[in-house]
Amino acid sequence: MNTSANLLSNLMACLNQGDIDVVDLTHTLGPATPMIKVPEGHGKQPPQTSLETISDYREDGGYARWSTLTTAEHSGTHFDTPSHWFTGKDLEAATTDTIAVKRFVAPACVIDCAKDVSEDEDFILTAERLESWEGEHGRIPAGSWVLLHSGWAGRFKDADKFLNQIDGVAHSPGPDPDAVRLMIARDACGYGTETIGTDHGNANQFDPVFPAHNLMHGANKFGMSSLNNLNKLPPTGAVILTAPLKIVDGSGSPLRVLAFVPNAA
To answer: What pTM, to 2 d.p., does this model score?
Structure first.
């Protein structure tokens, strides 16, 4: 057996023996899934996710049960391609069907700011905070995801609390432009968050506006939103699988995010 085959056999052995845990970072997608509210003048509102029965052996007889799923590319736990934002429109291999599949497997750096967010819903992730994290855990490796653990996933079942809009203004944590620039300088593969979108709730006040979209996608980087269970990941050491649906010319996709985590026990 060659070395490569041994590596894969060892991986399966570690999974079967419990040396590596598989953590689901995904919320369930369905009619109750909170949907983003697009700011006025920035496009149309997405439809609410729905399931309509085609046939069901429990009611119609026959052998099968299946439904028509209606949703948006950017609904629930979802993936943002570089082509999602206008700054990435001219990039090659930047849609769900053209991105190299190797890019969907990457290490994760988890920035734990849950305590900060519990004290300030408008918490801003800064470059200084990322550099402080690096001082403790090491430099963000090239090709890694930077994931903001904010505790926001606990709000997912209450759409009003999850969106947290007050007088038309969203209050939720996210990065400022300098933090995004630092991630790009580190050559991170993307930025992920527990909130409904990758940007800070009031990111239209930044320069440039919506930097997690504007800068990241312009630099051919990815985004992920509405992540779950980030509290179950270590600061470093996890590897995550983030394969979106292979939608023709897709700007993004709901996905099942899986993290492979060494079992400390």
So the answer is: 0.95
Contact 80, 223 (CB under 8 A): yes
Residue 42 catalytic?
A: no
- Encoded tokens for 97: 């069907």
For 210, phi then psi, to 5°, come to 45, 60
Mean pLDDT value across residues 204-224 = 97
Name the active-site residue from 74, 78, 84, 149.
Answer: 84
Give me the phi and psi of 171, to 5 degrees please: -120, 100
- Tokens describing residue 65: 């049960």
Distance of alpha carbon 171 from alpha carbon 174, whole angstroms: 10
What are 175's strand-pairing partners? 125
Based on DSSP, count helices (H) and strands (E) in the chain, helices before strands: 6, 15
The answer to whether the CB of 80 falls within 8 A of the CB of 217 is yes
8-56 pLDDT, tens digit each: 999 999 999 999 999 999 999 999 999 988 877 777 889 999 999 999 9
